[in-house]
């Protein structure tokens, strides 16, 4: 199946020319009617969608809504323009068995075979706020009944305080009338312990700043995989009562290499985030642990399960693990009919 994001083209070319394949076709599918589910205070047709990343702009989001993805996240934006890494940004990877969370070395190439896992390496590009705000507002207008658009954003280091920059980004996203906010805290290089979400004190300060800036919109935090139970508990003690939900996981880091054993992305990008089939175990594990901690700590946050969803039964697995909503990036990119198949298999949206 032709993916709706073309890995052989640059981020900018995808932004200007995409989406591709089925998402570009003029014929739109007939969407089965489903029983709505409550999510973050909204009634959504089916609690399924596409997480931050593959939906680069309103053209991508409009196509995703037309194909029945009822919760769509607009790719992470910043308060300042930021260039994408050069090509390659996406490569297929071929782990032997299950990918671990310990920075595995994995073969990467252009052979996209199912079940598919990929590495993605963009550096979180962003256009200027004037550009993405107008476009995100168009994406919000593309929602149909029972659909919502979530705006993903992150702060940028070196612009003053990171708390203020996250708060400003939250305010700029809110101005687009997005239905909810998602703060990406799982991107490398913004926190003391490599990923911002592992720097709990900073996370707490940023959450307070965002809630002060935009008190009325639901706020999700995008988390990486936590292998350590105590760390996850400590994070929830700090912010579990302040935020409206967690979206997890982002990617598992690995070292993608070519057939000669050289870094496959480039010499100065030896590591890349891995997503797709190989990380489903980690997404399910995080969701299960968050759900049991939520019950034990008597918290109320929503859980968005992400990672390796490429078949309808994976949607069901995530809901059984305790997710309130489920999303697919890699799976949906190569299989745009996934939301339709989920609606056909699970018409009530629940188990
Ligand atoms: C092409 C691509 C771009 C992505 N960009 C972002 C991003 O900008 N912000 C973010 O929080 N996650 C980003 N992600 C990570 C996804 O949101 C998701 O967490 C991850 O891909 C795991 O889901 P999957 O296994 O269904 O792909 C991106 C993923 C892909 C495939």
Automatic annotation (TrEMBL):
GO terms for cellular component: cytoplasm. Residues 117-342 form the Dihydroorotate dehydrogenase catalytic domain. GO terms for biological process: 'de novo' pyrimidine nucleobase biosynthetic process; 'de novo' UMP biosynthetic process. The keyword Ribosomal protein does not apply. Keywords: Flavoprotein, FMN, Oxidoreductase, Pyrimidine biosynthesis. Its cofactor is FMN. SUPFAM superfamilies: FMN-linked oxidoreductases. GO terms for molecular function: dihydroorotate dehydrogenase activity. InterPro entries: Aldolase_TIM, DHO_dehydrogenase, Dihydroorotate_DH_1_2, Dihydroorotate_DH_cat. It holds the Pfam family DHO_dh. This is Dihydroorotate oxidase. It comes from Zophobihabitans entericus. Pathway: Pyrimidine metabolism; UMP biosynthesis via de novo pathway.
């Amino acid at each position: 199946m032709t993916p709706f994001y073309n890995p052989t083209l640059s981020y900018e070319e995808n932004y200007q020319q995409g989406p591709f394949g089925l998402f570009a076709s003029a014929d739109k599918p007939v969407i089965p009617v489903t029983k709505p589910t409550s999510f973050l205070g909204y009634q959504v047709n089916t609690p399924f969608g596409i997480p931050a990343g593959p939906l680069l702009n309103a053209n991508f989001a409009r196509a995703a809504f037309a194909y029945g993805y009822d919760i769509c996240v607009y790719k992470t934006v910043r308060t300042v323009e930021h260039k994408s890494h050069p090509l390659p940004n996406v490569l297929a990877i071929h782990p032997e068995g299950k990918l671990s969370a310990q920075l595995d070395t994995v073969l990467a190439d252009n052979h996209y075979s199912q079940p598919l896992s990929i590495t993605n390496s963009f550096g979180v590009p962003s256009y200027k706020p004037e550009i993405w705000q107008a476009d995100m507002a168009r994406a919000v207008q593309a929602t149909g009944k029972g659909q919502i658009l979530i705006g993903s954003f992150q702060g940028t280091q070196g612009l003053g305080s990171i708390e203020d920059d996250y708060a400003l980004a939250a305010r700029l996203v809110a101005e687009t009338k997005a239905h909810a906010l998602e703060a990406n805290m799982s991107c490398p290089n913004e926190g003391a312990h490599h990923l911002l979400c592992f720097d709990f004190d900073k996370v707490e300060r940023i959450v307070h700043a965002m809630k002060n800036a935009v008190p009325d919109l639901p706020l999700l935090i995008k988390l990486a995989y936590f292998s350590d139970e105590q760390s996850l508990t400590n994070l929830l003690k700090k912010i579990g009562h302040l935020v409206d939900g967690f979206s997890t996981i982002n990617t598992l880091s690995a070292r993608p290499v070519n057939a000669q054993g050289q870094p496959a992305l480039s010499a100065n990008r030896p590591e890349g985030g891995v997503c797709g089939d190989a990380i489903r175990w980690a997404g399910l594990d995080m969701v299960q642990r968050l759900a049991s901690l939520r019950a034990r700590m008597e918290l109320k946050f929503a859980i968005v399960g992400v990672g390796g969803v490429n078949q309808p039964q994976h949607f069901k697995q995530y809901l059984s693990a305790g997710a309130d909503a489920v999303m697919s990036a890699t799976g949906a990119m190569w299989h745009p009919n996934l939301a339709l198949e989920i609606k056909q298999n699970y018409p009530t949206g629940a188990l």
